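SAMPLE LOG
Freezer: B-3
Tube label: C17
Construct: single chain, 168 aa
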Amino acid sequence: DVGATFSDEGIASFEAWVGETSGSTLQQVCSQDQSLSTSYHQFDVYGETEGYMTLVFLEMFEQGPVLSSVVLFTWILSMVNAMQNIGIFVVSVALQHSRASPMLRLETVLKHSKCFAVMEIPTLRVAWIIFVGFLQLAVACTLMINGALWIVQTTHNTELFLNTLALS
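STRUCTURE (predicted):
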């Protein structure tokens, strides 16, 4: 579990492991020696951390945080776009509201075209669409927040891309 590995307890466990482990084992873990006979978890976590913290862009920025920032920014923009589409739909339906209309009225836009326009929408349908729009906004906000938390906790660069695809 990524959260447990990099939690305060996980870090304290690694500090205790460093204090109790021989220098040769520490050297093998830190040099990513494939012939290591013990400490596989530490070997894996060290490799993961080293890959996440690799310097990029003229050796000024760490790869993981830069990638996380880009993915997080893209995710938030995607969710804001979804919320904007929900808002536009609800507002456009509300603008076509007609209290006098007992039913939905459609009109043909062009005589020989299959296009039509919604001219009047009754009150009950508008109320239903507003209710569903609020539900969709609640789901989108929940996804945006929890998805962002998931992205921020991801420490494998490949998992970061896969999580982004899964969230999309």
